[in-house]
Amino acid sequence: MEHAPYINRADSLLYLTDEQLRQGIEAMFFAYRGFTSDPDRILSDFNETHGANYGRAHHRAIHFINCAPGTTVNNLLNILGVTKQSLNRVLRALIEDGLVESRVGRMDRRERHLHLTPEGRALEQRLSDAQRARMRDAYRQAGPQAVAGFRTVLEAMMDPNMRHAFTQIQDGS
Amino acid sequence: MEHAPYINRADSLLYLTDEQLRQGIEAMFFAYRGFTSDPDRILSDFNETHGANYGRAHHRAIHFINCAPGTTVNNLLNILGVTKQSLNRVLRALIEDGLVESRVGRMDRRERHLHLTPEGRALEQRLSDAQRARMRDAYRQAGPQAVAGFRTVLEAMMDPNMRHAFTQIQDGS
DNA sequence: AGTTTATGTCAGTATTGTTGACATTCCAAG
DNA sequence: CTTGGAATGTCAACAATACTGACATAAACT
Known about the structure:
2 copies of one chain form a homodimer. Chain A is mainly alpha-helical. Chain A has a domain of 109 residues: Winged helix-like DNA-binding domain superfamily/Winged helix DNA-binding domain (Arc Repressor Mutant, subunit A, Orthogonal Bundle). Chain A is 70% helix and 7% strand. A 3-stranded antiparallel beta sheet of chain A has the order 1-3-2. In chain A, strand 2 and strand 3 form a beta hairpin. In chain A, helix 2 packs antiparallel against helix 6. Chain A is globular and about 55 Å long. The structure holds a DNA duplex.
């Protein structure tokens, strides 16, 4: 970017051609597959050795409970964007298996505050270590400037509501 | 970025902290949700008005058949990364409804070459218009440099096999 | 006391993935 | 030419995850 050349209007908008956009769409598709493949594998192993039936839904629940310990079911519902029935099935399994603990709220005793047990944290570690490793490799290959651009585009691609939830989480809810 | 300050080793690797990586993981999650939300809505509408039951799997099939007309089932299988049985269910519905045409191969009559019918192309247009519009908005907000970084990181995040398939597609299969 | 809110549960259905079994077609070795 | 294997595609059954709708319980609010 040093000696930045003269950029005319056409060049500066080349990245908005339909072909470029299609490539972006497909890159997103393939990258997301890579992004989820490691946790999927780890969960398959875990299921075999522990006789469980966990999938991506369980991973997501564990991830966000770990991020925001003590979060309520309702809060998790909003973040994950699924119905309570769907989340409940997942949480019930995790609680029964002792990976998640559900504590009745002290202020509002209708609420259930969710925490990972040591076992839950152990699984979360395995999952997020793998996912971070892939992200770290990608980040390292790409370099800091590319990473900044990556984050900028991703945030612009979120639905506004979710962008709000996202930045809240980043600030440490 | 003007008056670029002295950057020591620690600063230059700040983007690789666990916290930064976690944020990247979550950004990916929320962005992908946004990325798929428009097609999901369009397919829901289509299903209601046409009495169909299409989902993301049908969208992906239509997308890649449109990209590579005449592709075989096996080829599509590799791109999509699902079992042939799973893809077959999807293709059967699309063929029965007249959105996709399956032609027996002339060289190898075991192969089926897939093409979109005019109706299939019409639906593909609606879907990809919406997805491109979101991508275009995000790209426009972020600017060309961020887009370049976005693409770089996404490609680094793919599985190597998929990166191969991806770049092949970009070169025009 | 009555309403709203937060949560949990049950039943039913749809999408999308899996495996297993099988049919068809091609090709190559005997 | 035939036979056996490999490639390709189809059918059937099952599992995970989502959805909607209905309802129960308990706690908070008014």
